[in-house]
Design a protein that fits this description.
alpha/beta, 2 domains, three-stranded antiparallel sheet, 13 helices, binds guanosine-5'-diphosphate, binds magnesium ion
């Protein structure tokens, strides 16, 4: 049986190497995080990941539990050579010191950095495969390891279910737009260009009007592009809704007054570049003028994890109360949305998964989304 060991700075890189060289069917047999020792083994150097894989194995390997949990062998005595005539007491103290340093090094390692039981390791690599950031995966696995009774760890189904529950608990949910029948409610959608704001407004409007029988109106402040106004007008005509185009705070007040017998006014806004903070603040002034009850930040699920977090930070100036993630149908994996959901931003209201109006939208559900992130 041929075993190969790959070294890389991240687990993602190591797994890509394995996949590239041994193909998708390679079995991962073992992984460990290694820190090069410096200064006589006293200091920990940069860490790297070692993955041992093989294409000749078709069953998961079973390392002996005692091998997996055996504490690292003590390094050769890092203390300067003690003169032969040094009192035994000094030698004893040096050994004691060395043991303390090793213990400290072990404590500083995150749970995922120690050798993991096989089930957790497999889960860890599955998370990486789902495009979940290595640090997030490490943290999630650490939580599972500390919260799961040892005997349960050998039950893959139980461990996977526990992981799904942990993930679910980290997804904040806002619930759908409120549309009471006794007063007008205003909900605005904001976000970058092209993420699907207008299409989502059309889906929401059609569902509230046709399924929930609410009196709905549309306002657009997206007057930058004629096509954008026409796009919304086409939907308004098809669904048979009143629509107003406003370009100043005075027109906004007037439009809302003319719609004050409606249950819900949905407001479309021009896409803003996340880099244009002045325009985002301008947008906020418009929303204040409208007295918007709900502001939903719309972001595309096919955006990279860092950009998602940064864009949400930039749009914080618009003070969004909820988050809509669009285009989930186009995403090959959804691990990229986790840092955003865990960053303390607004909770999720809706998910959209296609271009069809009004069908391709659903109220966000933490359990379902956790399953989607895990590729279920
Ligand atoms: N695949 C997919 N496309 C979508 C979704 N939502 C919107 N789109 C498409 O994204 C493009 C931009 O949508 P639009 O509503 O004009 O974005 P806006 O600029 O934010 O208003 C259009 O081609 C939409 O059909 C979705 O959930 N999935
Ligand atoms: Mg638009």
């Amino acid at each position: 049986m041929e075993l190969r060991t790959y070294k890389a700075t991240t687990m993602h890189e190591a797994l890509s190497l394995v996949r590239c060289e041994l193909g998708p069917d390679a079995a991962i047999l073992h992984t460990r995080e290694v820190r090069n020792r410096r200064l006589f083994g006293l200091l920990r150097g940069p860490r790297h990941i070692e993955v041992t894989a093989s294409v000749d194995v078709h069953v998961p390997s079973r390392l002996h539990a005692e091998d997996r949990f055996r504490p690292p062998r003590p390094a050769p005595n890092p203390a300067p050579a003690t003169p032969p005539d040094a009192p035994e007491r000094v030698q004893g103290q040096l050994q004691h010191l060395q043991a303390m340093i090793e213990q400290l090094c072990r404590q500083q390692q995150s749970p995922a950095a120690r050798d993991l039981p096989e089930e957790l390791f497999r889960l860890f690599t599955d998370l990486i495969e789902c495009d979940i950031d290595e640090d997030v995966a490490r943290e999630l696995i650490g939580r599972i390891q500390s919260e799961t009774p040892r005997r349960e760890l050998s039950e893959p189904m139980l461990v996977a279910a526990r992981l799904a529950r942990v993930l679910e608990s980290e997804i904040p949910i806002a619930g759908p737009i409120q549309a009471p029948t006794d007063r007008q409610r205003v909900a605005a959608l904001v976000g970058p260009t092209g993420v699907g704001k207008t299409t989502t407004i059309a889906k929401l409007a059609a569902n509230f009007r046709l399924k929930e029988k609410r009196r709905v109106g549309l306002i657009t402040v997206d007057t930058y592009r004629i096509a954008a106004v026409e796009q919304l007008r086409t939907y308004a005509d098809i669904i048979d809704l009143p629509m107003h185009v406003v370009s100043s705070p005075r027109e906004m007040r007037e439009a809302l007054r003319r719609m004050d017998d409606l249950d819900l006014v949905l407001m479309d806004t021009a896409g803003r570049s996340p880099k244009d903070e002045v325009r985002i603040r301008e947008l906020r002034a418009f929303l204040d003028e409208a007295g918007a009850d709900e502001i939903h930040l719309v972001l595309s699920g096919v955006t990279g994890s860092r950009t998602l977090v940064q864009t949400a930070e930039r749009f914080a100036a618009a003070r969004p109360t909820a988050l809509i993630l669009t285009k989930l149908d186009e995403a090959t994996s959804l691990g990229n949305i986790l840092p955003l959901l865990r960053s303390g931003g607004p909770p999720l209201s809706y998910l959209t998964n296609g271009q069809n109006v009004p069908d391709d939208i659903e109220t966000a559900d933490a359990a379902r989304l956790a399953g989607m992130v895990l590729g279920h």
